[in-house]
Amino acid sequence: MPLTPPITDWATQPLRDRVVIVTGGAQGVGRGIAQAVLGAGGSVVIADLDADAGKACLKEWALPERAAFQRADVASERSVQALVKAALKRFGRIDGLVNNAGIAAAHGTPLAQMPLAEWQRRLSSLHGAFLCSKHALPALREHGGSILNIASTRAGQSEADSEAYAAAKGGLVAFTHALAISEGPAVRVNCISPGWITTDAWQAPARRRTPKLSRRDHAQHPVGRVGQPEDIGALAVFLLSDLSGFITGQDHVVDGGMTRKMIYAE
Prior knowledge:
single chain; alpha/beta; 9 helices; globular
């Protein structure tokens, strides 16, 4: 019995006619995911606090019929509600949600000196995933949509003074499988945990830099190089599309094999 649709059709623009919200989508990994969605034939609403970076994306992409920007703070429920409303007004549907926004820096104040306000601020990515999922779910259920949470390999390993960041990313991994069980089969929920991804060239135009990476930096990875935002974007497209229709509740580590490599102190 032939496959329906044929595999060749699945692989051609797998997000055609799909609408995806990407939080923190104007720079770094988020921008890599947003560009990958566009490349896969989808439409994207990038949500970011940095309006200049968001507007720069729209100008550089030059795809006004398929790309939109909404300034949003994912830690604010009112702002998230406005984001979802704007996406529906612009495109009429939501098929995917990428919860990527959050504080990028892993290191913070030592725990014994950390104010509660800083702890709460550093958990913003977890709070944002909750709020965005809560308000996007009604639209996602209508079309058998998909949620993708962006965590980190820091959910499973740490350096000193990274407790809040690790807690936020670990929480996203657990949130993923819990929500997948609650919302299945109507909505699939997955997670990507990136390793070392260099984002210097994926910032707003005024802040772009050529990455300064040494041979040793690349050699730490079994694949022979540090990661790029497009590495995350490629997997994001797969997980947001019907190509991954039998995958939900999973955390996918994308780190060039780094966390599988034995490292000895020199």
